[in-house]
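Thread amino acids onto this structure.
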């Protein structure tokens, strides 16, 4: 058996690690037997030399079972988890989780907080005062049995190896490694226990990878890992070349998700929700054709059932549901936004999605002694391909501190490129990997 030092040296010289070596390294990470320096050295060796698909699957398995796993095998109905690799304005989980639960699925959604410039589903749900986002395993089961869905952070005992490795990847510049990203995401999905997994892998200026071939490889690897660990998995490659929908920011996005659950919402966001919903329904055997899925989802939305399911889930997680009757209460009505106006006419040719994400986060940042401003964020009035007249509103930016908003708004000007000729946005739904 190799020592930890020898395992690091083996990977440094580009050799493939064996199952036993990967398992002993991961258990050493969790037991504290391996120093942070050694973990960091192995992460850098993996970053530079890569891992093949077999090694990545073994790493995923070792990480997934490094702590507690949810056992959802007791349910007769299919259990599903859905994951996005992170985007700007991506609030699809808020619509899809209750919508899919009304279609007869058990939706066990383990979510995260904001990461870099991308928003986190848990932060959006935090707009419901009092909501519990740290459910214990028995509460998760109670909600699945009674409501059919929950959205929660993973428990502290789940996937401890990922917590340690992710923190060190962040400090050592080794985040953007395909095997490390694939194993980090898939270990959490495997530990989440759902039988079926749908992945939304973003591509573009606001995504982990701007490059389509890298995003495609990530999608293919994650699908392969899921399948080889007995979890039927599909991935959809979708564009993050502009924010999804019009709202970016926690409560603003929640308001947009509520509109969509009521049958409205921006066209691109609604289309993506329906497409992802169809993939989930087909993967789990509820429907066969896209037409069947569309009819089922439209019925659940038009009848108000999907919205009621969302309210039931929020109440089940102890959240205040008054905004379902009074939508204005979640909107940032107390302060007027600062509005950035176009200084020339033309068509929006591109939007720097990452910059929109960063400015929205900055608008939310608390000043001394204040809490994070969940109502802060950005509403886009124009998206790629739309006609703009000089003086038209581009984005509105919301928050508590007008001075800060004016500075942020001015810096947003560079995020919009306006050209004389119309450019169509890149397709929202790029490809399906199954
Ligand atoms: N999300 C994760 O959970 N892990 C990564 O490595 C990247 C995105």
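Threaded sequence (434 positions):
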């Amino acid at each position: 058996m190799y020592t930890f030092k020898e395992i690091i040296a083996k990977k440094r010289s580009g050799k493939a690690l064996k199952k036993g070596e990967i398992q002993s390294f991961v258990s050493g990470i969790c037991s504290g037997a391996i120093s942070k320096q050694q973990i960091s050295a192995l992460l850098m060796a993996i970053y530079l030399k890569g891992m093949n698909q077999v090694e990545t699957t073994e790493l995923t398995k070792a990480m997934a079972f490094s702590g507690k796993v949810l056992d959802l095998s007791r349910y007769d109905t299919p259990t599903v988890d859905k994951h996005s690799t992170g985007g700007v304005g991506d609030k699809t989980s808020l619509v899809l989780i209750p919508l899919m639960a009304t279609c007869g699925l058990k939706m066990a959604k383990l979510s995260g907080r904001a990461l870099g410039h991308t928003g986190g589903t848990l932060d959006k749900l935090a707009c419901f005062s009092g909501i519990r986002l740290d459910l214990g395993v028995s509460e998760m089961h109670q909600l699945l049995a009674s409501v059919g869905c929950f959205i929660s952070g993973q428990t502290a005992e789940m996937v401890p190896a990922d917590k340690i490795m992710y923190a060190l990847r962040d400090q050592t510049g080794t985040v953007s490694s395909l095997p490390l990203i694939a194993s980090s995401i898939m270990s959490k999905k495997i530990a989440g226990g759902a039988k079926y997994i749908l992945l939304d892998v973003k591509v573009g200026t606001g995504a982990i990878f701007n490059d389509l071939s890298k995003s495609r490889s990530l999608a293919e690897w994650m699908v392969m890992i899921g399948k080889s660990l007995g979890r039927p998995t599909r991935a959809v490659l979708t564009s993050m070349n502009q924010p999804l929908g019009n709202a970016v920011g926690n409560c603003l996005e929640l308001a947009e998700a509520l509109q969509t659950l009521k049958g409205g919402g921006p066209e691109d966001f609604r289309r993506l929700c329906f497409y992802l919903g169809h993939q989930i329904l087909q993967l789990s055997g509820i429907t066969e054709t896209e037409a069947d899925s569309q009819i089922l989802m439209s019925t659940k939305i038009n009848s108000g059932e999907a919205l009621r399911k969302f309210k039931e889930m929020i109440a089940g997680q102890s959240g205040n549901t008054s905004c379902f009757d009074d939508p204005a209460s979640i909107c940032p009505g107390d302060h007027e936004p600062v509005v950035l106006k176009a200084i020339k006419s033309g068509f929006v040719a591109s939007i720097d999605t990452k910059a929109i994400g960063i400015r929205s986060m900055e608008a939310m940042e608390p000043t001394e002694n204040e809490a994070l401003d969940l109502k802060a964020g950005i509403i886009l009035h124009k998206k790629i391909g739309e006609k703009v007249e000089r003086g038209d509103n581009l984005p509105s930016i919301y928050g508590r501190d007008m001075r800060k908003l004016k500075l942020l708004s001015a810096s947003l000007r560079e995020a919009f490129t306006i050209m004389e000729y119309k450019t169509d946005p890149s397709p929202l739904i790029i490809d399906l990997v199954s």
